Amino acid sequence: MTIEVRVPQLPESVADATLVSWHKKPGDAVVRDENLVDLETDKVVLEVPAPVAGVLKEIKLTDGTTVTSGQLLAIIEEGVAAIPGASAPAIMATPSGATTVAADSVAKQKLSPAAKRVAEENKVDPKTVAGSGRDGRVSKSDVVNYLSTKEAAAPSPPAAAPGSSAAAPSPQPKSPAQFVPAPSARGIRAEQRVPMTRLRARIAERMVQAQATQALLTSFNEVDLRAVNELRARYKDQFEKQYSVKLGFMSFFAKACVEALKKFPAVNASVDGNDIVYHEYFDIGVAVSTDRGLIVPVLRDADQLTFADIEKSIANFASRARAGTITIEELTGGTFTITNGGVFGSLLSTPIVNSPQSAILGMHKVQDRPVVIEGQVVVRPMMYIALTYDHRIIDGREAVQFLVTVKQCLEDPARMVLHI
């Protein structure tokens, strides 16, 4: 019995998806719920599991195809076992209905035209070159590097034995016209053109949109994190033992931002046409870096979460975001965002607002610096913080005071407990 595999129902906010890569080929055995193919939306990667066990009989759409909900992806022969060692014909149907034999085209697909030319000129078997491109694609630079390595590994001519009367012939220098530099001497000038992933394209669109539609300005301040470090050092073991999660910086910053947002509601607002929408809830987005790009899962009602709740949520978001299992609903919404470039060593930056929000706080690297306190020069763990905001609805006074409030809460964490 044949079973059809179709694109699952996409969320309302997602019109279509891109077929990224198949994990199986025609003739492969599949088990129920095994991931067959990845579909990339502008927010997350969706997995399409096998509905039944059997053999993947036919693949209808190739990598890179744009698909919509309900579109036919493949056909599975239910209950049929794959024959060990059998080479099933990998017939793939193109969107126009024409068929191609995938087994015959794989080698061609994995060798770029420039790489093919260099390989043919130097009589190199492409199968011996490891590809560094997507899905093992061999680029021109891969072939050039292979040639360079091969030349370096070539054995040098044997030296004359000691005492030998035969004088070694003196090498004759090549004339400039005959000299041909080795590929390694010419340098690698290869280029690869690859399409943007949907997530990268969406990030680019939103960043350009924010800069084109908002009057963005950034204000800075610095925070002495000595009090936060002392609290973390004093309670980190007990905190981790009780809540099974480490006590990090992000929970302190999220709580400090909530206190500041309560005092300056314009920073938690957004523009809708000619209206200003003041949000009376605090959904804090936390930027998470993944191999596919930056995504921003949202801490819903952050004002009602404990420090442990925030740390657990962020750890969960980060692990699932990098595994590609985070949901679209968790990435939707948000009234304010926090991003931490300090984990990558950034000392100072101007983050871009996550539209339609009106502000974003940038954290940076903690660095010991000399500061003057009560007339004395002391060394303290300092961090620069930056607030980029939409100047259309947030005045400079509010932005500066917002940062001062965050600074006060972090330098005296008791304020977050007393709400003062």
CATH class of the largest domain equals Alpha Beta
Q: Report Rg.
A: 29 Å
Work out the helicity level: 25-40%
Distance between the termini: 68 Å
At the fourth CATH level, what is the homologous superfamily of the largest domain?
Chloramphenicol acetyltransferase-like domain
How many domains?
3
How many strands appear in the DSSP assignment? 21
What's the CATH topology name of the largest domain? Chloramphenicol Acetyltransferase
Give the number of helices. Answer: 10
Gist of the model:
The protein is α+β, with helices and mostly antiparallel strands. The protein has helices at 102-109, 113-121, 140-153, 183-186, 198-213, 226-243, 250-263, 307-323, 396-411, 414-418, and strands spanning 2-6, 17-22, 29-30, 35-40, 45-49, 54-59, 66-67, 72-78, 91-93, 99-101, 216-224, 269-272, 275-278, 284-286, 288-290, 293-295, 298-299, 336-340, 359-363, 367-373, 376-390.
Structure description:
- By secondary structure, this protein is an alpha+beta fold.
- It folds into three domains: 107 residues, RNA polymerase II/Efflux pump adaptor protein, barrel-sandwich hybrid domain (OB fold (Dihydrolipoamide Acetyltransferase, E2P), Beta Barrel), CATH 2.40.50; 41 residues, Dihydrolipoamide Transferase (Irregular); 220 residues, Chloramphenicol acetyltransferase-like domain (Chloramphenicol Acetyltransferase), CATH 3.30.559.
- The chain contains ten helices and 21 strands.
- α2 runs parallel beside α3 and α7 packs across α9.
- The protein is globular.
- It starts with a strand and ends with a helix.
- About 6% of the residues have low confidence.
